[in-house]
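Board notes (copied after class):
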Amino acid sequence: MPEMPEVEAVCRRIRPEVAGSIIRRARLLRPGTAAGPGAREMEAWLEGRRIGRVLRRGKNILLYLAGRPEPWRALHVHLRMTGNLEMAPDARMHAAAARMILEFDGRRALVFHDPRALGRVRLMTADQVRELSAAIGPEPLSPAFTAGRMTEAARRCRKAVKLFLLDQTRIAGIGNIYAAEILFAAGIHPGRRANRLSAARMEALHGAIRRTMAEAVRTAGAEYGEPGRWGEAEFALRVYGREGEPCGRCGARVKRVRQGGRSTYYCPGCQR
């Protein structure tokens, strides 16, 4: 699943292409992709609207819409497992997995394609946008994400620290892959309870989150293409997906366990 760095890469890629563009035609090729309102109503309302800002909040993409402000303020896109947004030079040229097409002048188009059809798009009011943002924790690279704020949130969480990192209401945008890499960088076992971490471990965790996510954003911006497709110099995965392989730091074999229905990878030698 695209996590915060990959979603940020998508936003940076499409932003200069779509900001300021007027939607001449909107097509929902799979009606079930529209989470609200219905596909035909969404198509009708989008046509003629100008796209303003393109913002990301956690793993959510928001295309703000100019023109009549009521009732809808933004088009919300959630990529889920295999979704992606890409520009097409001609709206007639799109893959079979295209679910939504927003056509601009000159037939240019923004295409939402999603092979597994799990992603969703919906129109949101200004209040809904505010509610969405308020329900998500601080961005891990923002000034608001301080060690103190993270520690306060962790002290209220009795779950394993790996599950704490995945909780979008506490920290925005961290998914399964980066949670494993963050905990490896911090030297913390994924099964430790979040509210039992020492002050020193809290500081180590906060620093690992900042460093890991900054590096992930840097590499994703340069190399991310779509779910499952990266450039040659992708983000270096030290434990994720490497069950049974020797740890590059201590040589112990990387292990895999199940937590919250997801696979967790860790080094039993480095992570205590």
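Comment from the instructor: Residues 199-223 form the longest helix (25 residues). The first strand starts at residue 25 and ends at 28.
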